[in-house]
Amino acid sequence: MGRKKLFAIVAALVVVPVVLIVAFVAFRGGSTETEVASADAAQMNPHPVAGSFKPDDTELETCQDGTCYEQAFGNLSFKDGPKAALTLFAEKIASDPGIESNCHRIAHNIGSAALARYEGDVGQAFAEGDSTCWSGYYHGILERALIDVRSNNQLVAAARNLCVGDTVKSTTFLYYQCVHGIGHGLMIHTGLDLSGSLKVCEKLKTDWDQTSCDGGVFMENFNTSYGVRSKFLRDDDPVYPCNAVAERHKLYCYLQITDRLLQVSSYDWTFAAEKCAGVERNWRSTCFQSYGRSASGVSRQDQGMLIAYCNVPDPRWRPDCIYGSVRDIVSQDAGGDRAAKYCRAVATSLRERCVEGAGTILSNLAATTDEFRAACERLTTTFLAACLRQGV
């Protein structure tokens, strides 16, 4: 799969709390390569929360905070099955702001509980899931699937055999969620060993797999799932580690970097835009796509707010912001209905780029060329060629 296709299948993810885990690796000063620290079985000690899901008697009706909702929905997934849990979850997202604001993390726990229900069978757990709230369900499965690996040498073999089977590979979008989830799992399992996790990603079977795995690694580095902070964050250099990793790993780092820029600046969007304009020249466009992804997450479903965020001072970067934001919308919804309204609402000069961005994700949601074309036809008539540009 070519580099253009790799750009097309990026799935945008919700911002989750940034927290601290001990990391076992350091960058060489001034180097663009990472130094791999050895990690034997004693070092590979995942955070306790990253263990197998444990059901209890927590019920949804008693919950008033995110942690309680995570456990309650996990209980429902474990006891009644993930389909029942996800159906109720989707209903609650639409009506309960407390659930909607923490939906990705809750979805992780529904996936984790499903994996426990099916005794570690990744394929069966995937078959029962859906892409609600940035595909958190699938990520929850994969972040737990490496728990029983006890040595660094076993990680590569385990990672290479997780995303197999017809169910997982039924669409590019679903397969991406699986491989992306491996990246999450590697980071959690190794205690946020960024370098070691990227090295395992490099050992996956194809270039596409390797790059997709990077996405989960960097997302876990910037937005760790379990209340700890990565060693690979620098408040005095918020673009780090994107400006330090090897070139092959920069794509997904820069596609998520504005989450970090906004965290360190108390959500100063001007600061984020200025930093994107000053990153490595070949990655500025990618950084502004990340800016659009972040803006989509923060604005939730407020279309006017999102358009305002993308009205960055330098007009050169507005198309990239629109492109990144609409891809996030389609990824979150696993469909194009809201994206169609958004693309009609942006400035006329930006509509083709908006439709093209939506098409890159729609192409991966579709199982066939005909299905992809039908999705594009529902999205637009004026810019149909732009939507179809990526192909299935």
Structural write-up:
Helix 5 crosses helix 7. This protein is globular. Helix content is 58%, strand content 1%. It is mainly alpha-helical and 392 residues long. The protein is built from 21 helices and 2 strands. It folds into 2 domains: 220 residues, no CATH class; 159 residues.
> Biggest sheet: strands, sense, closure?
2 strands, antiparallel
- Uncertain parts: 1-51
Strand order of the largest sheet: 1-2
Helix content: 55-70%
Question: Could you give the distance between the termini?
Answer: 12 Å
Helical segment tally? 21
Structural class: mainly alpha
Q: What is Rg?
A: 20 Å
The domain tally reads: 2
Order of helices and strands: HEEHHHHHHHHHHHHHHHHHHHH
Average per-residue pLDDT, rounded, comes to 84
What is the overall shape?
globular
Task: Say how many strands there are.
Answer: 2
Q: In percent terms, what proportion of residues is strand?
A: under 5%
